[in-house]
Amino acid sequence: MNDDLPEPSNLRFLRRLVTVLTATMLVGVVVVVGLLVTRLSGSGPQLPDVITLPDGTEATAFTQGDDWYAIVTDARQILIYNRTDGQLRQTIDITTP
Questions:
Q1: Are 65 and 89 in contact (CB under 8 A)?
Q2: Considering only CA atoms, which of 72, 52, 54 is closest in space to residue 62?
Q3: Cα 29–34–36 angle (5° rounding)?
Q4: By the 8 A CB rule, do 69 and 81 touch?
Q5: Is residue 80 within 8 Å of 92, Cβ to Cβ?
Q6: What is the largest CA-CA distance in the chain?
Q7: Helix, strand, coil share (%) of the chain residues, nearest 5
Q8: Nearest to residue 77, comparing CAs of 58, 60, 96, 91?
Q9: What is the DSSP string of 24-45?
Q10: 55-79 pLDDT, tens per residue?
Q11: Residue 49 binned pLDDT confidence (cut-offs 50, 70, 90)
Q12: pTM (two decimals)
């Protein structure tokens, strides 16, 4: 076979197009992974430093809003605290039917 044949122009264009698209895809994957790492690394909830629960109770769940946070205890109560000063706002007893 003769290896000195010129490459057809459409084949040369196709090879360059595949190379450019591969490079673009690699850059896109790196950007997406970088954004995921930076966005998810420090986005955890801001928990209060100290939570004082009534004696003999343990926390089983935690949730929060804009200016409050709530603790579900093993004594079947929901304790809602003020976020700014940590004072107990409300106690809700959980009843089952």
A1: no
A2: 72
A3: 95
A4: yes
A5: yes
A6: 91
A7: 35, 25, 40
A8: 91
A9: HHHHHHHHHHHHHHHHHHS-S-
A10: 888 999 999 888 899 999 999 999 9
A11: confident
A12: 0.54
